[in-house]
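REQUEST ID: PR-0412
SUBMITTED BY: lab tech R.K.
PRIORITY: routine
TASK: structure prediction, single protein chain
INPUT:
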Amino acid sequence: MFLIDDLLMMPINGMKFVFRTLARTAEEQYTDDAPVKEQLLELQLKLENGELTEAEYIEEEAAILRQLREIENRKREMAGLPPEEARGPFSGKVGEGSGASLSVEFSQPTYEQPARARSSAGRKKKSKA
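STATUS: complete
OUTPUT:
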């Protein structure tokens, strides 16, 4: 009896296997960020070689980073986590491709001994003499 059931269910189980495999492969491709990261590297090489202007680079970089964020959100949704908050133009955060820059200057700090410590140090020297 079980042999007949197995034989009758074999085509159905085979189709289930094929569909599960297809779903797994599609899911992996849907959440694979390697091709997008390769696009970003190619874009950086084009900028370094002078094939792109800075403005074109910023525009294309923003689009690529947007794709990466979408892929990351898909991964988060599949893991059951809430998607990353959208970063609008008025979020208070600097977004990619905004052209914002930051410069920092470091200087050597100068330390002065407090007046109280200087006067007590002078008294100690005088008392030794």
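NOTES: The chain has four helices and no strands.
REVIEWED BY: pending
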